[in-house]
Amino acid sequence: MTSAQDEKNTGLAKVEDVAAPGFSPEQHQPVREDLEIDDSEEASMLPSPVVAQTPRQKPKLTAAIIIPIWIVLSSSVIIYNNYLYNTLHFRYPVFVVTWHLTFAAIGTRILQRTTPLLDGVKDVSMSKDMFLKSILPIGFLFSGSLILSNTAYLYLSVSYIQMLKAFNAVAVLLVSWTFRISEPNRKLALIVLMISSGVAVASGGELKFNMFGFIVQAASVGFEAARLVMIEILLHGLKMDPLVSLHYYAPVCAFLNLAALPFTEGLAPFFELARIGPFILITNAAVAFLLNVAAVFLVGAASGLVLTLTGVFKDILLITGSTLIFGSTVTAIQVFGYSVALGGLVMFKLTGNKK
């Protein structure tokens, strides 16, 4: 499927195989300046010739530079959120996600006016019909995925959640088979079995297993898989890089979350803001936003397989780091199960599938 090359996002903590649109300067015809005007007074009344503006080019970074930056930012978002929830005991994921998306909605519009990073917005013909029938339902799924994935950190360890994320590819396959976007075959069935078995073994080895947290994370995976498949169905392969996608989805998701906030967390998070302080809130949202900026450079510098391997390496670092920072325990059974799941995930990418 090609849609995974359109979305990575975000969000947050999830940049998969995204295809970056190419940007090349347009060639303009030179303006003729050899017009002969005998009357100097008439010449002074003529407007000055307009020189064609060359489109702004996006800055580029090599893979050797952007991959480490993306790994650091992606890991920092997860560790920072976990620190906010479980160390500072600010256990309000709906509020945090709403704040992140509000920050992103403002940030993308500032970047649109000051940088070439969102020039891709001009290539998207956004109509009212497209917004209501495509952006809004996809934004609803995106919002649900973000809230559920953040809520899971209240009940599960960072290391275990990263292991469960290996199941994302299986979920996308199952949803795409359900909607008949792709057809199952023996090789894919074997890969599904391999990844599922690995995740199941890793779950069996989790010492602090929490059923509610597991269900929440599984629901998050389901929402994310449905979102990616709906992008393929509703947007018909429309190319949007991570920042352009965030430009459209962030305001929608922020509004949906804000509407849900009174019924989920109420005013409780607002009473805690003074204790947390503006520095934590702003830096937390800024790191999440910078991750989306880094994703734009990442998708333009690396192939789909390299992105997958980068994500795998990042997850391994996160699992290792969480044991050191938060004292998470990873058992030998989990290492074995997760290794099997990763092997299936790499095989899946090597088959040429985009999801």
Automatic annotation (TrEMBL):
<dbReference type="InterPro" id="IPR050186">
    <property type="entry name" value="TPT_transporter"/>
</dbReference>
<keyword id="KW-0472">Membrane</keyword>
<feature type="transmembrane region" description="Helical">
    <location>
        <begin position="92"/>
        <end position="111"/>
    </location>
</feature>
<feature type="transmembrane region" description="Helical">
    <location>
        <begin position="188"/>
        <end position="205"/>
    </location>
</feature>
<dbReference type="Pfam" id="PF03151">
    <property type="entry name" value="TPT"/>
</dbReference>
<feature type="transmembrane region" description="Helical">
    <location>
        <begin position="276"/>
        <end position="298"/>
    </location>
</feature>
<feature type="transmembrane region" description="Helical">
    <location>
        <begin position="246"/>
        <end position="264"/>
    </location>
</feature>
<feature type="transmembrane region" description="Helical">
    <location>
        <begin position="61"/>
        <end position="80"/>
    </location>
</feature>
<feature type="region of interest" description="Disordered">
    <location>
        <begin position="1"/>
        <end position="38"/>
    </location>
</feature>
<keyword id="KW-1133">Transmembrane helix</keyword>
<dbReference type="GO" id="GO:0016020">
    <property type="term" value="C:membrane"/>
</dbReference>
<protein>
    <submittedName>
        <fullName>TPT-domain-containing protein</fullName>
    </submittedName>
</protein>
<dbReference type="InterPro" id="IPR004853">
    <property type="entry name" value="Sugar_P_trans_dom"/>
</dbReference>
<feature type="transmembrane region" description="Helical">
    <location>
        <begin position="332"/>
        <end position="350"/>
    </location>
</feature>
<feature type="transmembrane region" description="Helical">
    <location>
        <begin position="131"/>
        <end position="148"/>
    </location>
</feature>
<keyword id="KW-0812">Transmembrane</keyword>
<feature type="domain" description="Sugar phosphate transporter">
    <location>
        <begin position="63"/>
        <end position="348"/>
    </location>
</feature>
<feature type="compositionally biased region" description="Basic and acidic residues">
    <location>
        <begin position="1"/>
        <end position="17"/>
    </location>
</feature>
